[in-house]
Design a protein that fits this description.
By secondary structure, this protein is an alpha+beta fold. The protein has one domain. 22% of the residues lie in helices and 21% in strands. The chain has a five-stranded antiparallel sheet. The chain has a three-stranded antiparallel sheet with strand order 8-9-10, with no helix packed on it. Helix 1 packs antiparallel against helix 2. The structure holds zinc ion. Zinc ion binds next to loops.
Length: 183
Amino acid sequence: MKYTNPKELAERVRPAEKGTSDKYSWRLHQHLLKAHPSQLQVWISAWNGFDGHNTEDIQNWKAHKTMPRAGVLMLGLMDCDYEGQGNWFHGKSLNQICTPGREKHGWAFGPGHHTREWVQITDWFWKQYIDKGRCTFFPHEHHWLSINANSRKCAHCLQHQNRQIYTERIKKRTEIWSPQAAH
Ligand SMILES: [Zn+2]
């Protein structure tokens, strides 16, 4: 599938119940319904509001294909070398799109946001999102189902986890100074 048709993509990731996120985000579905075909690009930003310049997510994605954090996953359009002024990105982070109450307007990110270092992951990202849903980038959104007392599986991304219990025996050493016995 080529991710160039916002309406088609919106239908593919529509939550079952109106207004409620499940495997897919309701807000991202709504965003896609209104998006222009050129605004479906997904980039990993080399800049974020907390750390400033930070390429950790880009390096982790290049090395291990680790899903970047929602705050550096950017959805929109990269205008490369815009009139000789460098690369300008127009869009929003997935965090902004999916979090209720966040501002609705998009932002422009210029060369000061290290836009030349941003990495485009459009096809990879949409395939991951269609297969596994929003818990790929919101790990606290896993929908765990118990298989038995010691294992569980996420109903959305199908991640399987086993429980392990460790017993820790703590050895404690205490130092005591006492007066020397009289001779
Ligand atoms: Zn999950």
